[in-house]
Amino acid sequence: MTQQLPSPRFSDPAVFGRVAVLMGGTSAEREVSLDSGRNVLDALLSRGVDAFAVDGIPALVDAVRDGHVERARRVDRVFNILHGGDGENGVLQGLCEALGVPYTGPGVLGSALTLDKIRTKQVWQAAGLPTARFARVPAGGDLSAAVRELGLPVFVKPSSEGSSVGVFRIVEEGDLEPALEFARAYPGELLAEQMLTGGEFTVGILGDVALPSIRIVPAGEWYDYHAKYIAEDTQYLCPGLDGDQEAEIRALALDGFRAAGCTGWGRVDVMRHADGGLMLMEVNTAPGMTSHSLVPKAAEQLGVDYASLCWRVLEQTLAGGMGGAQA
């Protein structure tokens, strides 16, 4: 499948002004966010962008406030690489819009919706898009009953976390107890979800383009936190499919992204059923940008290196782009 990205619209880094690279924060994904943020910052600096690091939303508010007082320290736009929590749930997006500061990634609605896996799947169901069978488990709810309803094997995961935080793979009854122990202490909703065995894929989205799919083949039984961020033996096959199937998965990912109210850039995770059917799983609105991350791997297949990818994402904050708030 031949595909090309449009050429960058700008070549002068001065068009971006002073860019706050927002990273870190207080979510369970803090360390991954710091890793991503350092990489993005280095990439933007290498392209001549006047970029600086900001750790968390309170520090961003201080930076914007200081910039109102001292113009030389202004914040002209935000590159959001704050994974999880308020970086992806609409809080940061609403704040930036209230302050009139353009930012990368989807807007308030798309960000708030897609951090909640359960509500995202409900929207996909309403739109007639395929997603794996699931059961909602409210805080203090009966996880065992939800698992029985779906039938083994299943995954159990928090509805509003990422990076495989709190995910349990339950293949037999003996696997259930650690998930039950987690559920007793966890204050939020859990998602019990049918386990699909036909392959795990992800598709990066950049503007109106779905990047080549990546098939993820971990050395272990599944793609857990270790396989994502630590292991060196996880295989990433890109493109993940061939011919019509590759076209299908990219089209499905783009449809799922848009149906969830998202624009700009992100990543859509897709699983394949044993019968070959593709199922939407979740959307990431501030995808990882570490050395193990997947959107940079897919962009590279189209001849876009890491620094150029960061540049293209940042371009979406300028008038005519496809991101959240724009200049």
From TrEMBL:
<keyword id="KW-0547">Nucleotide-binding</keyword>
<dbReference type="GO" id="GO:0005524">
    <property type="term" value="F:ATP binding"/>
</dbReference>
<dbReference type="InterPro" id="IPR013815">
    <property type="entry name" value="ATP_grasp_subdomain_1"/>
</dbReference>
<comment type="similarity">
    <text>Belongs to the D-alanine--D-alanine ligase family.</text>
</comment>
<comment type="function">
    <text>Cell wall formation.</text>
</comment>
<dbReference type="GO" id="GO:0008360">
    <property type="term" value="P:regulation of cell shape"/>
</dbReference>
<dbReference type="GO" id="GO:0009252">
    <property type="term" value="P:peptidoglycan biosynthetic process"/>
</dbReference>
<feature type="binding site">
    <location>
        <position position="284"/>
    </location>
    <ligand>
        <name>Mg(2+) 2</name>
    </ligand>
</feature>
<keyword id="KW-0573">Peptidoglycan synthesis</keyword>
<dbReference type="InterPro" id="IPR011127">
    <property type="entry name" value="Dala_Dala_lig_N"/>
</dbReference>
<feature type="active site">
    <location>
        <position position="163"/>
    </location>
</feature>
<keyword id="KW-0464">Manganese</keyword>
<dbReference type="GO" id="GO:0005829">
    <property type="term" value="C:cytosol"/>
</dbReference>
<keyword id="KW-0961">Cell wall biogenesis/degradation</keyword>
<keyword id="KW-0963">Cytoplasm</keyword>
<feature type="binding site">
    <location>
        <position position="269"/>
    </location>
    <ligand>
        <name>Mg(2+) 1</name>
    </ligand>
</feature>
<keyword id="KW-0460">Magnesium</keyword>
<dbReference type="GO" id="GO:0071555">
    <property type="term" value="P:cell wall organization"/>
</dbReference>
<keyword id="KW-0436">Ligase</keyword>
<comment type="pathway">
    <text>Cell wall biogenesis; peptidoglycan biosynthesis.</text>
</comment>
<dbReference type="InterPro" id="IPR016185">
    <property type="entry name" value="PreATP-grasp_dom_sf"/>
</dbReference>
<dbReference type="GO" id="GO:0046872">
    <property type="term" value="F:metal ion binding"/>
</dbReference>
<dbReference type="InterPro" id="IPR005905">
    <property type="entry name" value="D_ala_D_ala"/>
</dbReference>
<feature type="binding site">
    <location>
        <position position="282"/>
    </location>
    <ligand>
        <name>Mg(2+) 1</name>
    </ligand>
</feature>
<dbReference type="InterPro" id="IPR011095">
    <property type="entry name" value="Dala_Dala_lig_C"/>
</dbReference>
<feature type="active site">
    <location>
        <position position="293"/>
    </location>
</feature>
<dbReference type="InterPro" id="IPR011761">
    <property type="entry name" value="ATP-grasp"/>
</dbReference>
<dbReference type="Pfam" id="PF07478">
    <property type="entry name" value="Dala_Dala_lig_C"/>
</dbReference>
<dbReference type="InterPro" id="IPR000291">
    <property type="entry name" value="D-Ala_lig_Van_CS"/>
</dbReference>
<keyword id="KW-0133">Cell shape</keyword>
<feature type="domain" description="ATP-grasp">
    <location>
        <begin position="121"/>
        <end position="315"/>
    </location>
</feature>
<feature type="active site">
    <location>
        <position position="29"/>
    </location>
</feature>
<dbReference type="GO" id="GO:0008716">
    <property type="term" value="F:D-alanine-D-alanine ligase activity"/>
</dbReference>
<keyword id="KW-0067">ATP-binding</keyword>
<protein>
    <recommendedName>
        <fullName>D-alanine--D-alanine ligase</fullName>
        <ecNumber>6.3.2.4</ecNumber>
    </recommendedName>
</protein>
<keyword id="KW-0479">Metal-binding</keyword>
<feature type="binding site">
    <location>
        <position position="282"/>
    </location>
    <ligand>
        <name>Mg(2+) 2</name>
    </ligand>
</feature>
<dbReference type="Pfam" id="PF01820">
    <property type="entry name" value="Dala_Dala_lig_N"/>
</dbReference>
